[in-house]
Amino acid sequence: MTILETRTGQIAPTAGPVIDLEQERQEILKRYRRLLRSAKPMLKDNDAKLIKKAFNTSAEAHKEMRRRSGEPYIYHPLAVAQIAIDEIGLGPTSLVAALLHDVVEDTDTTIEDIDRAFGPKVARIIDGLTKISGIFEYGTSQQAENFRKMLLTLSDDVRVILIKLADRLHNMRTLESMPRDKQLKIAAETIYIYAPLAHRLGLYAIKSELEDLYLKHVEPEAFKDIARKLRETRLSRDRFIGKFIEPIDKDLRETGISFVVKGRPKSIYSIWTKLNKSKKPFEEIYDLFAVRIILDVPPDQEKAACWRAYSIVTDHYKPNPDRLKDWISTPRTNGYESLHTTVMSKLGQWVEVQIRTERMNEIAEKGYAAHWKYKGNDTKTGEGIEAWISQVRDMIESAGSGDKKGAIEFVDDFRSNLYSEEVFVFTPKGDLKVLQRGATALDFAFDIHTQIGAKCMAAKVNNTLVPLSHVLQNGDQVEVITSNRQKPNEDWLRFVVTSKAKTKIKDLIKEDNKRFVTDGRDLVQKKLKTLRLEMTNETINQLRAYFGSKTTDDFFYRVGKGHIDVAELKKFKAEKDAKENRANKLNTDGVTDAKAVVKELKKIHGERTDADMLLIGEDMDRVDYTLSKCCNPISGDDVFGFVTINDGIKIHRVTCPNAVELMSNHGNRILKAKWTSQKESAFLCGLRITGTDRMGLVNDVTRVISNELSINMRSVTIDSTDGIFEGNIRLYVQDTSHLETLVRKLERVPGVFDVIRFD
Ligand code: MN
After folding, report:
1. What is the pLDDT at residue 730?
2. How far is the CA of 74 from the centre of ligand 1 (A)?
3. What counts of helices (H) and strands (E) characterise the chain?
4. DSSP 364-383
């Protein structure tokens, strides 16, 4: 006796309509009988008895439970079992497991109970299904590993995954009654893993439905919009398809092969993806449908018949040679077979034509289960399914190794076919944004709004502060942090990937640059006046060359931006004058950079051996030299010595701003110099650290400096405005490599954007 046979009467829930229990009981039985009818062709021995027992067990266990919609809970296991049979093609064992799939998780029934009543096979599947729920959360490496574990160790039997897919499909079909946050979470998981999984297993119909349901709940407006437009354009599309297939239909008839030709609209989700990718309006998307020719031929004639149909199609329409896909000679790994071509219609639109047989079509829709049915394996014995299951298992096993990285790659791999170009992320409110893979926090900001992008200073990803260049991962929740002081700069172009962000940044910079060029020109003009130089084209051009700019605009821009200090124009004038005075003393037209300085040193001294050089570091007390204040050289820097009149020898870096002047005017007082072995001596140097301010950043920075490298700081000044952090730190380092190590470590501190040395 079960509850279904004994419970009668009516109950009135606290809210909602009165429920007619008798009517409900009838409905449950109706659904159960429908399930039995579907399963009947594959039942053997005492399968029917087992199914009945499973149904009764499940109904009894869930008797007090209702779904969120108010319906009796048993509707759900019944529906999952129906999907497993009808849409995946699974057999009696799976049907039993599907009926019982939520029993252990949601009720007092234990795995041991199931084992005793239904045997170890069913118990193992239920055990796997029970363990899956709750284990999978998208996002992190641990979860990727969990997911893979679920697929590998928990699912000794791939039926676990297939029933899980059926379960997910039914939950997606009934998502309406869930609260919004649950809807989003379930939908995100679905698009992130279940749809790709269905794809990988060759379950195209389920894959498309999952995707469409995802869109329907996450982007309801877009979904409705596309669905409506598809409806509205249906007549004209049908007319177009009718016209298109007319000549093909006629010729195919003459071959005597029986066939059907259909114009199939693509899924709403795939149209949505296309709209997003192409940025074109719906009206301009032409490949909204594919023409499918399905041939009914015996197995040994399949290939020839398909190519014959191909030949007929291309007799009438010119094919695009790049779009021919022959998955008949080489089926896809998930079992998909079909011949695809894209041809030019008489109206000048490309039309995709898929040619396949009935058998291939069923595989395409239902995947391997259908495949094995056609392979001649008798599904009644269950052997076909078993063979298929072991094949799927092999596929999962070979897909990744046991380590964590392997697990992530494995999960990625599932999605790679379908979603390689996209990353799914969420706004703080849970709205989904689809961006190009590799997109950064800054891309996200620009995707929201140009002004948000322009003012974007940092972002929080899953509540952790990250720099603008942070690459987003699927499932990330991104919050943009803006500042009115922020401005787009060229550096941003190095890491954004979306064309939207790139274009906007370039535009904004161009806008900004114009102002700097004007400002720079004004500054130069004023300065030249005080130097009593005329602002002629020649002077400007000399200045441009002197400061190593490619164009005069670029020169002005650098001045306007403050990269070139107008005070340096004085040096330019001094050199210009000196050059004119000095005539041919130095056989050079101006020394402009460090390399040229080194060359100049050689010219002055000839090629000497190292022994002749001033060695700095060892004979600190024997040789009278000091390190110049203007460029603060440290051990390892490229340096030269300069003999001063009163101060002994001064050591300068070859990149010192004064090097050019010293070299040009006092060549005879220059000494070649080199550092000797790296001694434990300390050199003072300055580092400017910029980044995003956050709690504890100062502490992290100073900890790196003092703890990790035992460096002494002499002074620290930290300035923080609007969340932008700027620290000027003067510290003692041993040499350049020591300094480099420190800089690298500092750059790794979260929130730090840039570390530069200053003099
Ligand atoms: Mn369920």
Report:
1. 81
2. 10
3. 32, 22
4. HHHTHHHHHHHTT--TTTTH
Q: For domain 683-758, is the CATH number 3.90.550.10?
A: no
pLDDT per residue over 697-707, tens digit each? 777 777 777 66
Q: How far is the CA of 216 from the centre of ligand 1 (A)?
A: 21
Per the residue annotation, which of 106, 287, 412, 638 is the catalytic one? 106
| Domain 10-218 CATH class label | mainly alpha
Give the pLDDT score at 549: 79
d(C-alpha 159, C-alpha 392), whole Å = 10
Q: What is the 3-state secondary structure (H, E, C) of 328-361?
A: CCCCCCCCCCCEEEEEECCCCCEEEEEEEEHHHH
Structure confidence at residue 136 (pLDDT): 47
- Cα(363)–Cα(205) distance, integer angstroms: 10
Q: What is the CA radius of gyration of the chain?
A: 37
Cα of 159 vs centre of ligand 1, distance in Å, is 14
8-state DSSP, 17: P
- The single residue of 27, 60, 105, 386 carrying the catalytic annotation is 105
Question: E strands along 199-300, which residues?
Answer: 258-265, 289-296
Which residue in 404, 465, 384 sits closest to 456, CA to CA?
465
Distance 76 CA to ligand 1 centre (A): 7
> What's the rounded Cα separation, in Å, for the pair 307 and 667?
83
Write out the residues surrounding ion ligand 1, Cβ under 5 A.
102, 167
680: three-class secondary structure by DSSP? coil
Task: Identify whether 106 is a catalytic site residue.
Answer: yes
Of 3.40.50.150, 3.30.420.140, 3.10.20.30, 1.10.8.60, the CATH number of 403-506 is: 3.10.20.30
pLDDT tens profile 239-293: 988 999 999 999 999 999 999 998 888 899 999 988 888 777 887 777 778 899 9
Q: Find the 168 Cα to ligand 1 centroid distance in Å.
A: 7
Q: Separation of 129 CA from ligand 1 center, angstroms? A: 9
Question: Can you give the pLDDT at residue 250?
Answer: 93
State whether residue 44 is helix, strand or coil: coil
Higher pLDDT, 272 or 758: 272
Q: Which residues pair with 756 in a beta bridge?
A: 688
Tens digits of per-residue pLDDT, 381-407? Answer: 444 555 555 555 555 555 443 433 444
Enter the CATH code of domain 226-381.
3.30.460.10
Q: Residue 469 pLDDT > 70, yes or no?
A: yes
Domain boundaries, the chain: 10-218, 226-381, 403-506, 507-581, 594-675, 683-758
Can you say how many angstroms the Cα of residue 401 is from the centroid of all Cα atoms in its chain? 22
In angstroms, what is the span from residue 123 Cα to ligand 1's centroid? 16
Structure tokens that stand for 747 in this block: 């750059």
Cα 362 to ligand 1 centroid, rounded to whole Å: 26
Identity of residue 254: E
Distances 185 to 110, 356, 475 between C-alpha atoms, Å: 28, 37, 10
Q: How many CB atoms lie within 10 A of CB 32?
A: 21
Strand, coil or helix: what is 617? Answer: coil
φ and ψ of 335, to 5 deg: 100, -5
Model pTM?
Answer: 0.51
Identify the DSSP state of 138: S
Q: What is the pLDDT of residue 263?
A: 85
Stated as kind and residue range, the H or E segment containing 310 is helix 302-316
Instruction: Give the least confident one: 342-346, 579-583, 603-607.
Output: 603-607
- Alpha-carbon span 336 to 362, nearest angstrom: 10
Query: Ligand 1 centroid to 270 CA: how many Å?
Result: 27
**pLDDT of 604:** 54
- In DSSP terms, 151 is beta-bridged to none
- Rounded distance, CA 172 to CA 170, Å? 5
511 assigned to active site: no
Q: Answer yes or no: is pLDDT of 714 > 80.
A: no
**Which of 627, 634, 629, 752 is CA-nearest to residue 689?**
752
